[in-house]
């Protein structure tokens, strides 16, 4: 026997209140259905949806045949899912905060440990009569830097200072005496000394750069030799290509001369006739012209 009739179709709520009268938990099924349909889960919790026992009495007496129990079940499942997600997020937040606090605590402990070790090392060095290693290293670096600066200064610095002092003394003496033009011989010597030092430094620099220049000269010489070899090879190929043309021109000239001689012999052996004498006279001329042209071409090709 089915206590709840099969659902046929759902109509709008007419607000009759029969569901509230039939509810054994004294809930408000009508308001619960409205909020469940609108997905207002906070208000469902305020109306104590969790107290619903899902007996189906409200849906049984509903004249609009609204499946109220199905709405309540779906709303309960959504509320439960959201509660689980909120709980998981809260747990993740707590884990993150605990991890952050642990990392900060470990960092502070590490810094304190390093500080304590440094203090112990300083105390030990003081007790043994030594200095701090870091301070000693800094002092060594400063001393080394000062030595390098002193070495970098020119060796004639005292001489320069002495020359300047002498020049100033002479200028002062000349001013006292009343001389109009002071003696600048010491300054001139000083300038000459500076020029000499500059020339020496320049010569040293050039000597240090000579290996690189020699290497560049060798590379350029090798490149020039390769270029000359390529040019020579190209010239040989060009001459080799021109030789067959010269031979062809010489052969053509020889053939033309042979034809001219043959034609001349034929004209001498044949009888002299007026009609036939003109044609043999023309053939030797053409052959001679052709031979001359061939010889000119051969000479031109040979010159090229």
UniProtKB/TrEMBL annotation:
Residues 168-179 have a biased composition (Low complexity). Residues 103-129, 168-304 are annotated as: Disordered. Residues 103-126, 186-208 have a biased composition (Basic and acidic residues). Residues 266-278 have a biased composition (Polar residues). SUPFAM superfamilies: alpha-helical ferredoxin (SSF46548). It comes from the Bacteria. One of its GO terms (cellular component) is membrane. Residues 2-33, 43-72 form the 4Fe-4S ferredoxin-type domain. PANTHER family: ION-TRANSLOCATING OXIDOREDUCTASE COMPLEX SUBUNIT C (PTHR43034). It holds the Pfam family Fer4_7. PROSITE patterns: 4FE4S_FER_1, 4FE4S_FER_2. This is 4Fe-4S ferredoxin-type domain-containing protein. InterPro entries: 4Fe4S_Fe-S-bd, 4Fe4S_Fe_S_CS, Ion_transpt_RnfC/RsxC. Keywords: 4Fe-4S, Iron, Iron-sulfur, Metal-binding, Repeat. One of its GO terms (molecular function) is electron transfer activity. HAMAP family: RsxC_RnfC. Coiled coil: none annotated. The keyword Transport does not apply.
């Amino acid at each position: 026997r089915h206590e709840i009739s099969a659902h046929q179709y759902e109509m709008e709520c007419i607000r009759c209140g029969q569901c509230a009268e039939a509810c054994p938990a004294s809930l408000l099924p009508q308001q619960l259905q409205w909020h469940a349909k609108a997905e207002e889960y906070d208000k469902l919790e305020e109306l104590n949806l969790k107290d619903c026992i899902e007996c189906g009495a409200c849906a049984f007496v509903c004249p609009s045949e609204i499946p109220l129990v199905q709405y309540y079940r779906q709303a309960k499942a959504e509320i439960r899912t959201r509660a689980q997600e909120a709980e998981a997020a809260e747990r993740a937040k707590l884990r993150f905060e605990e991890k952050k606090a642990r990392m900060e605590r470990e960092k502070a402990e590490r810094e304190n440990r390093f500080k304590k070790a440094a203090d112990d090392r300083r105390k030990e060095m003081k007790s043994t009569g030594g200095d701090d290693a870091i301070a000693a290293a800094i002092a060594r670096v400063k001393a080394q830097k000062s030595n390098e600066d002193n070495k970098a200064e020119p060796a004639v610095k005292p001489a320069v200072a002495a020359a300047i002092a002498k020049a100033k003394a002479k200028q002062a003496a000349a001013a006292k005496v009343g001389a109009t033009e002071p003696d600048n011989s010491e300054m001139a010597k000083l300038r000459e000394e500076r020029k000499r030092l500059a020339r020496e430094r320049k010569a040293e620099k050039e000597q240090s750069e000579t290996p690189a220049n020699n290497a560049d000269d060798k590379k350029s010489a090798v490149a020039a030799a390769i270029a000359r070899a390529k040019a020579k090879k190209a010239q040989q190929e060009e001459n080799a290509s021109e030789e067959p043309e010269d031979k062809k021109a010489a052969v053509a000239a020889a053939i033309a001369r042979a034809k001219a001689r043959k034609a001349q012999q034929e004209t001498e052996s044949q009888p002299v006739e007026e009609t036939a004498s003109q044609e043999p006279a023309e053939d030797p001329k053409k052959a001679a012209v052709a031979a001359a042209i061939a010889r000119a071409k051969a000479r031109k090709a040979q010159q090229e």
